[in-house]
Amino acid sequence: MTSPFANLPAPPYYVVSFSSIRTAGDNGYGEMADLMEALAGEQPGYLGGETVRGPDGFGITNSYWRDEDSIRAWKQHADHVIAQKTGRSDWYERYEVRIARVERAYGFERR
Amino acid sequence: MTSPFANLPAPPYYVVSFSSIRTAGDNGYGEMADLMEALAGEQPGYLGGETVRGPDGFGITNSYWRDEDSIRAWKQHADHVIAQKTGRSDWYERYEVRIARVERAYGFERR
Q1: Which of A13, A77, B15, B38 is deepest in the core (most CB within 10 A)?
Q2: Which residues of A touch B101 (CB under 8 A)?
């Protein structure tokens, strides 16, 4: 199994935190989500991502980026623009996006 | 049902993003997590939080704070310090914490 943790450099870098509630049914979401994850991974400045969705349909995806320019470029990527539109028409009841500059980071791992 | 979304003011504010994998078994985690959530909600500068854990044990909790001082004060709160220690001894296989300054935010809600 691959780790669910992003392997990140030392700060500073940026995080785009995407909190969402899905609509009922798949409606092509799963396929597009996989596609967008792969495509995001190819973008300049992408550092990694972490994602989880609970049994109640609420999910958080934190994606990590080198700078604001790379976040902006990904938001305007043609395929991603289509996905964003379909997100609003079909896939999400609600979402909230917060763009933040990571200033400190630390962690713990059991031996 | 209460909303899983935090009700936040306009940026700037701060986010503490806590990604984690739990150990097997509860070991008192559920009770302490409820307690810490309630206690965090009483702290000066606490703005709200969003949390989700998936079926594989990986979870993300984003808690939102007015400024770095309030984050620091909560990290040093006596009861929270005990919870953090027990987290490392009993509850978590691994966790990663990123502290970030939220600069922009936007959202979507279906009518």
Answers
A1: B15
A2: 100-101, 103
The Cα angle at residue B109 between residues B103 and B111, in degrees rounded to 5 = 155
Cβ neighbours for B7, distance < 8 A, ≥ 6 positions apart? B48
Residue B7 domain-assigned (yes or no):
no
pTM of the entire structure? Answer: 0.95
Count of domains for chain B: 1
Domain that holds residue B22: 13-102
For A71, name the nearest residue in chain B, comparing CA atoms only.
B104
Q: List, for residues B26-85, the tens digit of each pLDDT value.
A: 999 999 999 999 999 999 999 999 999 998 899 999 999 999 999 999 999 999 999 999
Tokens 């792969």 locate to A38
The CATH number covering residue A86 comes to 3.30.70.100
